[in-house]
Amino acid sequence: MTTVKMNQKKRVNTIGLLKYFGVFAILLFLFVPILWIVLTAFKTEGDSYNFTVFFKPVLENFQYLFSQEFNIGKYYFNSVWVVFATLLITIPVSILAAYALSRFQMRGKQVFMFAILATQFIPLVVNLIPLFLIFRNLGMIDTTIALIIVNLGHTIPYAIWLIKGFIDRVPVDIEEAAAIDGANRFQIITKILIPTALPGIITATVFCFVITWNEFMFALILTQKEAVTLPIALSFFNGEKGVIWNQMAAAGIIFMLPTVIFMLLVRKQFVQGMTSGSVK
């Protein structure tokens, strides 16, 4: 019996070590690239080709980004404006559309819902040439309005389906009780539905934010100079000897900051929305 218990204890210890090793390997895989970016951002061009953690840090890479030669503030403003305008339109429209699809019975409802979902099956590159021709004929090439319209075509269908799943879980009895007390439809949506489904709405907002902030392909084709966003600006670091890794790493850190800050602000609601969305 003693030998059996000892073998079981060794087996448990081995499994525990394998779990810790697996977690460590995953963390190493995830954070080593970020560590490399952070270190490279403070290196000179010569040191950027050496993977070492011991070097004399410099700030000249960040100073170059904010200089008149590169002017990262312009690209930053374009990205922030596109994301802000996209979310400002996407979330209210998606909430109202999701509420209508969840609560009202209408002819062709299932077909309409499938059509919304089908837009996510189409590869983005298929829409590239038609959209480029449309915006060119309208004189909207190299404008942030064109980027906002393109992003709305991606975010609204996605947000509708995601938010609808959370609205479906809100009991109809609550709305009926509020209506009996004299609340109108607008009050029901703003004072009952939105607070109840807030984790789902924040989850949709986070995903739409990430999709819009990281959008590269359409921004590359539809912009030239005035409406260039940060993802496109990251491709500007090419010199005579190749990619200027230290400056690109510094720009990468600045590019990641809004996403990190936004996730820190809404992390509790986001986790709540993800967990509640996975359990009925």
Tell me what you see in this structure.
Strands 1-2 form a two-stranded antiparallel ribbon. Helix 3 (72-103) runs antiparallel to helix 9 and helix 7 packs antiparallel against helix 8. The chain folds into two domains: 2-60; 68-278, MetI-like fold, CATH 1.10.3720.10. The relative contact order is 0.12. The chain is built from twelve helices and two strands; from the N terminus they run αααααααααααββα. Strand 1 and strand 2 form a beta hairpin. With 280 residues, it is an all-alpha fold. The protein has helices at 2-41, 60-65, 72-103, 109-118, 124-137, 144-167, 172-180, 185-196, 198-213, 217-222, 230-233, 245-278, and strands at 238-239, 242-243. Helices cover 74% and strands 1% of the residues. It starts with a helix and ends with a helix. It is globular and about 70 Å long.
Quick structural overview:
By secondary structure, this protein is mainly alpha-helical. It contains twelve helices and two strands, in the order αααααααααααββα. A two-stranded antiparallel sheet has the order 1-2.
Question: Any key phrases for this structure?
Answer:
280 residues, mainly alpha, MetI-like fold, 12 helices
Secondary-structure blueprint:
Layout: H1 2-41, H2 60-65, H3 72-103, H4 109-118, H5 124-137, H6 144-167, H7 172-180, H8 185-196, H9 198-213, H10 217-222, H11 230-233, E1 238-239, E2 242-243, H12 245-278
Antiparallel strand pairs: 1-2
Helix pairs in contact: 1-12, 3-6, 3-9, 6-9, 7-8, 9-12
